[in-house]
């Protein structure tokens, strides 16, 4: 079970996590299926008393990390303490580690990612293969929500958070009129190489942020289909790039403002 988009688990997510925790804690006399509602209520009460440090009725990422061995704890918290600058950076990392272009980060690819993360964060170059497999299994247990043994886009996005999805700001939700400055700020956020257009991983990062506004769980195929839908709606010229004009049309549609409104 992984933390929700807000960085914590609660409600049915917490129930699911506790059932899985029982299963993984080597409790041979109790299986998740045999856990009654009464037992779950009692378990949740004890669990929250022990780990819900801020007593908000939720388990956030830092509280969850307390359950993990020290090295896994470190791996989990490192990226939350050092979030990516933008989804453009996320998509570059995704492309690098999805080495077979399957649209998923499979166990071996995740293992390679964790190996490089340890090198980056702790300058460790000699992690044993057994330890890496152990770390990989732990991260899959935490973030692989649908339990298919691999990470889809939305699951990897929980492991690799960005500082902010700028498109979540209220100005893009119709509460206020978009200005030229707003649009220019978004354009510069995604046009990382300053070449005057949004393309390649810049485009994928923008579309990922856009998709997250309407869909919680998504994979690479969802992103492809979303890209086709969005770009068809703005008369995309199929050159693999988004211009300022095309970005303006998308943002106006997002904010539900008529395109002839004064910018």
TrEMBL record:
GO terms for cellular component: cytosol; dendrite; nucleus; terminal bouton. It holds the Pfam family EF-hand_1. Residues 38-74, 85-120, 131-166, 178-213 form the EF-hand domain. Gene3D superfamilies: EF-hand (1.10.238.10). InterPro entries: Calbindin_Ca-bind, EF-hand-dom_pair, EF_Hand_1_Ca_BS, EF_hand_dom, EFh_CBN. PROSITE patterns: EF_HAND_1, EF_HAND_2. GO terms for molecular function: calcium ion binding. Keywords: Calcium, Metal-binding, Repeat. GO terms for biological process: regulation of long-term synaptic potentiation; regulation of presynaptic cytosolic calcium ion concentration. Belongs to the calbindin family. This is EF-hand domain-containing protein. It comes from Anopheles atroparvus.
């Amino acid at each position: 079970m992984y933390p929700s988009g807000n960085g914590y688990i609660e409600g049915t997510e917490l129930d699911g996590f506790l059932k899985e925790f029982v299963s993984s804690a080597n409790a041979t006399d109790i299986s998740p299926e045999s856990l009654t509602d009464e037992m779950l209520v009692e378990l949740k009460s004890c669990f929250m008393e022990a780990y819900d440090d801020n007593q908000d009725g939720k388990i956030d990422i830092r509280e969850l990390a307390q359950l993990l061995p020290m090295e896994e704890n470190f791996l989990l918290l490192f990226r939350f303490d050092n979030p990516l600058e933008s989804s453009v950076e996320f998509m570059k990392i995704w492309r690098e580690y999805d080495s077979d272009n399957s649209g998923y980060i499979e166990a071996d690819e995740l293992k390679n990612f964790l190996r490089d993360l340890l090198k980056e964060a702790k300058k460790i170059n000699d992690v044993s293969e057994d330890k890496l497999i152990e770390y990989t299994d732990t991260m899959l247990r935490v973030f692989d929500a649908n339990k298919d043994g691999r990470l889809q886009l939305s699951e990897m996005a929980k492991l690799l958070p960005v500082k902010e999805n700028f498109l979540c700001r209220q100005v893009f939700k119709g509460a206020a009129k978009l200005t030229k400055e707003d649009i220019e700020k978004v354009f510069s956020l995604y046009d990382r190489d300053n070449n005057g257009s949004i393309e390649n991983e810049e485009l994928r990062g923008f579309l990922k942020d856009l998709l997250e506004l309407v869909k919680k769980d998504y994979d690479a195929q969802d992103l492809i289909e979303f890209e086709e839908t969005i770009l068809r709606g703005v008369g995309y010229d199929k050159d693999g790039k988004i211009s300022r004009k095309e970005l303006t049309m998308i943002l106006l549609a997002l904010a539900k403002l008529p395109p002839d409104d004064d910018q």
